[in-house]
């Protein structure tokens, strides 16, 4: 089934705005939501140790159906993919003019000078004078939850920060070093399932393609372990479209359904096959992972070859998105 079949459940880049009539003037706001939902199911395959935790030393966990699972909250993956999206826009000179989480509008600047396609997809906010400018993300990330149980997915290792002389003795304090700790990590081979949804037919096809390019094929994730390089391989196993959301768009519901069906989740390929079997019964339109992977590889090849058509498309989108944010926050001219 071609990926174009998903477009009826998406928005249109030329119809991002809704013009409303106020008491004395016409004003702009984001297009009214309509019936349509698109969900990407992404398997995050850990290929080298990764750490997903909050304040505790242990990996964040959650119980699903009475079993303990690894839980990586949405931002553990969204942060890195939002950063990659900014880099894509910078490559094409189509946005990404500020660092992530550092969006500032100076006096005299318009919202469209800083907000871009990445803002549309991943969300952002800024302040200008006494105004607060919030942009809700079109892409709604769920938690990423391990298909395997916590016990078989997590291990730990012992670390110490020795002095330069190789000892644990602090010459200044004349005391043994206290820089001894354990690091918990998610083991290679663990599969985490995450759903990313675009609801309400407000996000255009260009936003979906930008998201797919930002997810890419692999990446470095987890605060402590991302500095060691690529540690997660990404598999978009299906893109599902329908007029309404489905409960299987929650990874918790999907994991429960996989367990009930006795599905094989021993490998990424086996798990992907099992997930596709479930979503094909639940959604009217399902684009299989093989077609999505081909599309991602094609886009990456075009980008690395500095394809003129792709650059022109990004620049055209940048102009329309900039006009959208200007009209929304500055008013219709």
From TrEMBL:
Pfam families (alphabetical): Csc2 (PF18320)
Record-given protein name: Type I-D CRISPR-associated protein Cas7/Csc2
Organism: Paracoccus acridae
Taxonomic path: Bacteria, Pseudomonadati, Pseudomonadota, Alphaproteobacteria, Rhodobacterales
